[in-house]
């Protein structure tokens, strides 16, 4: 148990100082001081929504940035997230956050396979503050269970969250299933791209949820809407075939990569496992890019991967050969090869730029 005393809070409006103070307690793994800091902010009159979005959410964003830069380990990132979740719980129990239900009912959940539950939790708390009755269903909710819940509760709206782009095909299925029973869907999270651009492809609404709902009820969806209505390019079967053969693609490219990169022969067993995992992620993100026909999604993932590898002292020059070998295996898939060639150019340019900066 912490024996330290949280620092005195800055006056209202000095959000940057409060963010710094919360960040320091989170970084130190001091959940007691973190929660006391949040409670004190509320005691001194700070708006609960501001504490959620301008303080806790900002600190959580910094947690992710520090992990990418290799200044936080996975364990530290998990611990920091857990402390921020405790801070949200403390806020929700504070008298300043207690509100009367004046609006309808909203179900908030992560799509199936999505474990990043803090973003939808923040949304759920904001919506509570604005008078909505909230059913918060947490991480990784299978779509059949979501639909069963909606039939039971009669929710007015579903708000779905996903942080990882590879969950977008699953999200699309969930969106379509909710709309099929007449329930409007809002979506949010990093998976849906800048300004929700991929949400629009999937037939959902990604605008700022709380503000959008405040303007009035969402229109009811068309009940006969099908997934293929949104993404007619899926008729070429590239997404289906890449997904179906993903394990074989990873094995084939891994074997060929050992010939293309002789240094792999000296890899430890752990390094070989990590390489195979990276290849599996590359194929999974390629499949998602094919699903959306969005080459920028895959290119962004590849350049991000190069950044992560570089920050961990791992040479990123293995990426272009891997992409080249994958393109060779998929030579009969025009959309896939186009996406792979664009990504190869992007990561090669990124590597050249990084090398120039360190010269």
Overall description:
It is flat, with a radius of gyration of 23 Å. It has helices at 15-27, 31-43, 48-68, 74-92, 118-129, 143-153, 168-180, 197-201, 209-214, 227-230, 238-244, 246-260, 269-292, 295-311, 319-329, 334-358, and strands spanning 105-110, 133-136, 157-161, 185-188. Residues 1-12 have low confidence and may be disordered. It is built from 16 helices and four strands.
Short key terms for the protein model shown above:
359 residues, mainly alpha, 4-stranded parallel beta sheet, 60% helix, 5% strand, flat, disordered N terminus
Q: Which SSEs are present, and which pair or pack?
A:
Layout: H1 15-27, H2 31-43, H3 48-68, H4 74-92, E1 105-110, H5 118-129, E2 133-136, H6 143-153, E3 157-161, H7 168-180, E4 185-188, H8 197-201, H9 209-214, H10 227-230, H11 238-244, H12 246-260, H13 269-292, H14 295-311, H15 319-329, H16 334-358
Parallel strand pairs: 1-2, 1-3, 3-4
Helix pairs in contact: 1-2, 1-3, 2-4, 3-4, 3-5, 4-5, 6-7, 11-13, 12-13, 12-15, 13-14, 13-16, 14-16, 15-16
């Amino acid at each position: 148990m912490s024996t330290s005393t949280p620092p005195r809070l800055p006056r209202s409006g000095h959000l940057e100082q409060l963010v710094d103070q919360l960040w320091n307690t989170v970084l130190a793994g001091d959940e007691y001081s973190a929660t006391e800091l949040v409670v004190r902010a509320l005691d001194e009159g700070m708006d609960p929504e501001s504490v959620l979005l301008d303080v806790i959410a900002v600190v959580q964003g910094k947690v992710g940035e520090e992990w990418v830069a290799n200044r936080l380990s996975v364990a530290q990132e998990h611990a920091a997230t857990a402390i921020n979740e405790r801070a949200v719980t403390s806020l929700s129990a504070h008298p300043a956050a207690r509100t009367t239900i004046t609006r309808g009912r909203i179900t908030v959940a992560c799509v199936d396979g999505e474990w990043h539950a803090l973003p939808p939790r923040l949304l759920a708390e904001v919506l509570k503050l604005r008078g909505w009755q909230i059913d918060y269903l947490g991480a990784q909710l299978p779509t059949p269970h979501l639909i069963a819940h909606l039939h039971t509760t009669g929710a007015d709206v579903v708000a779905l969250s996903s942080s990882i782009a590879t969950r977008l095909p699953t999200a699309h299925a969930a969106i379509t299933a909710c709309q099929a029973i007449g329930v409007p869907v809002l979506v949010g999270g990093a998976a849906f791209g800048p300004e929700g651009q991929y949400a629009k492809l999937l037939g959902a609404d990604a605008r700022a949820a709380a503000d959008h709902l405040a303007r009035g009820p969402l229109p009811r969806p068309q009940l006969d809407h099908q997934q293929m209505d949104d993404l007619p390019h899926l008729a070429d079967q590239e997404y289906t075939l890449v997904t179906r053969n993903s394990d074989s693609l990873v094995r084939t490219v891994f074997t060929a990569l050992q010939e293309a990169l002789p240094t792999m022969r000296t890899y430890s067993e752990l390094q070989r496992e990590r390489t195979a995992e990276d290849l599996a992620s590359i194929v999974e993100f390629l499949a998602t890019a094919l699903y959306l026909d969005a080459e920028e999604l895959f290119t962004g993932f590849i350049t991000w991967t190069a950044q992560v590898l570089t920050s961990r002292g791992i040479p990123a020059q293995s990426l272009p050969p891997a992409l080249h070998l994958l393109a060779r295996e998929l030579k009969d898939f025009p959309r896939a090869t186009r996406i792979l060639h664009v990504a190869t150019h992007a990561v090669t340019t990124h590597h050249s730029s990084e090398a120039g900066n360190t010269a």
